[in-house]
Amino acid sequence: MSKRRRSSLRSRLVWSITYILLAVIVALAIPLAINLSRRGTSELASDTLITAQTLAAYIGAENVDNPEALARIAQAAPASIERVIVTDLNGIVVYDSTGESTGENFANGLRPEIDAALRGDPNAEIRYSQDDARNNLYAAAPIIDEQPVGAIRVTRDAQELTDRVHGTWIALALVGAAGLLAGIVIAYGLASSLSKPLQQLAEAAHDLGEGDLSSRVGDIEGSSEVHELAGTFDEMAGRLERTVRSQREFVANASHQLRTPLTGMKLRLESMLETTKDPGLHHQLEAADAEVDRLSQIVDRLLVMARHIEEGAASRVALGEAAAEAVTRWSERAEPLGCSLTSRGDRGTAHADPTDVDQILDNLLDNAIAYAPGPIEISSGVTQGRAWVSVRDHGPGIPVEDRASVTERFYRGSGAPPGGSGLGLAIARELAERWGGSLLITDAAAGGTEVTVSFPGAGT
Question: Global pTM?
Answer without folding.
Answer: 0.41
